[in-house]
Amino acid sequence: MSASPLDRWALSRALTRMANASTAELAQAAPRERPAHVARRIGITGAPGAGKSTLVGHLAIERASKGRLGVLAVDPSSPNSGGAILGDRVRMDDLNGAADLYIRSLGSRRTCDGLADNLPEMLDIMDEFAFEEVLLETVGIGQAEYAVRAQVDTLVLVLLPESGDTVQAMKAGIMEMADIFVVNKSDLPGAQRMATDIQRIAAVTRQPEGAWRAPILLASASQPASISSLSQAIDRHQAWRSADPQQVRRLRAQRARYRLRRLLEMRVMEAVADQDDAFFEASLREQLALALTAAVRDSRRADGE
């Protein structure tokens, strides 16, 4: 357990400040050295309606004894207003009251990859506040939104019975990156058949020798033993990954790559948004060059050069 009490007010203010930070502030906030403490990160992803929030709630209760636990749940933001329903906090109300449990809903804002703006920096803050573990729930995703892979140590893909079409759509993307498959709401008809379908897909996927073999689990909120089995599978995967220093380094590089790419994307988006209508009368090649030049100029100006 963490030695000092969790300062929820300070943590909430730090996360809000970082969620609203500019690209210049994000660049300044990036740690120059690897932090002494890094929380274990578990991603929970899957299609809309798969029951991710309920599963995360029960998993948080199951894993709360392992130390300070944070839940970051991403909700979709409106493309018009930028607002989000942020319903995950409401659905997890029964978790409130645990001294070392913190729940935060995040709007996806400008991102289209299932995550939230400035998420890497917010995860850094969770490390600064000595969280042992963070559960990261993504927006409901489809085939291509697998950016979460680089942000977590263990990725759990949640599916529903009778979602064969969803599996077919996902198998070329997120299906290949999941560390654990969970057929949720397994008390519904078709759960075992769904698990068999996933097993069939996994069997034909080429993997190098010694690679992790993703288990396929059945889970239900009404079956505590199934939540315990999922928690144990997460522990096994965490142990497997941490035993290989090369994998740890590779994941660290993936996170740094994602952070840099997002900063570049946001800087260029800002540069393009600042242009007047006349800018777009130039050739596309000229637009590209001017936008990149403006992004670099604004970056240097923000850094005081």
Structure characterization notes:
The protein is an alpha/beta fold. Helix content is 45%, strand content 13%. It contains eleven helices and seven strands. It has a seven-stranded parallel beta sheet, sandwiched between helices. Helix 7 links the parallel strand 5 and strand 6. The longest helix has 29 residues. The termini are far apart.
Short characterization:
With 305 residues, the protein is an alpha/beta fold. The chain has 11 helices and 7 strands.
Radius of gyration: 20 Å
Unreliable stretches (pLDDT < 50, length at least 5) are 78-88
Output the helix-strand order.
Answer: HHEHEHEHEHEHEHEHHH
Helix content: 40-55%
Shape: globular
Keywords:
11 helices, globular, seven-stranded parallel beta sheet, 305 residues, alpha/beta, single chain
